[in-house]
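Preliminary data (for renewal application), D-MYO-inositol-1-phosphate complex.
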Amino acid sequence: MTSPGNFISPMTTIAREAGGLLMNYFNNRVKIEYKGEADLVTEADRASEELITGRIRELWPDHDIVGEEGTRTESGSDWRWYIDPLDGTTNFAHGFPVFCVSMALEYKGERIAGVIYDPSRNELFAASKGGGATLNGRTITVSATATLRESLLATGFPSRKRHQNPNIHFYHQLTLRSHGVRRPGSAALDLAYVSCGRFDAFWEFNLNPWDTAAGVLIVTEAGGTVTNFTGGPFSIDSREVMASNTLVHEELLAVFHSIFAGEPLPEPALPRVYLQSRKS
Ligand code: IPD
Ligand code: CA
Ligand code: CA
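Predicted structure:
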């Protein structure tokens, strides 16, 4: 097998090209279409996927590809790409500049190279298996924050079946136990931010392989830990992701355990009670 690190340069070229394409659409505003009630897609998502998959097919015609906007090549190859051509579509469609391109390469079931490119900030995060993680070519590591109490956290909420998602309980409890929980709207960038220490941890329910494949590798190569919500190994189709700087992982898992177990925890103040206190 070619060394995983050799893929980073061509992947960077492709991700930067796709990022440039996204910025052209972003600067001219795009029409919003709906895949579900609050699940958006735009012409830019499809154009970016077409560009990326075209480049992959030129360079590696025998590789399989899984792309969010419908690309599926299932030839049984040892090589498989996971492509999110635009992660953060809702942000993008509203002109909020937090979105990225995410690409990961898998060999025999293991992710060996990943890049995440944020064209608004010209930030390219990359990692190859055993080769460490970088931001615009400079080595990055996760934060040294030792406790949840001192942590800045991130999460996200799904755009499908929103009413079935319990994450608001986790959001509330972790908000009370940390410096705060951000909800930026791009899971791939959230993972990239854990890898360079901007966030100390990130979790989300219901993610897809194209959201996580690159980011999980980048976090682990930067010294972080990624598991499911009970501390078991992360798997590409497990849908739940808990990523941290390693140091706060056990503490975060313990909070999740308490919430899942239904232990008595502080409840949010009732809006009715607030209104009454305001009148008096
Ligand atoms: C979404 C983003 C968002 C996360 C959603 C994802 P998309 O991906 O990563 O942060 O909360 O669950 O679906 O649809 O913008 O590619
Ligand atoms: Ca996504
Ligand atoms: Ca997407």
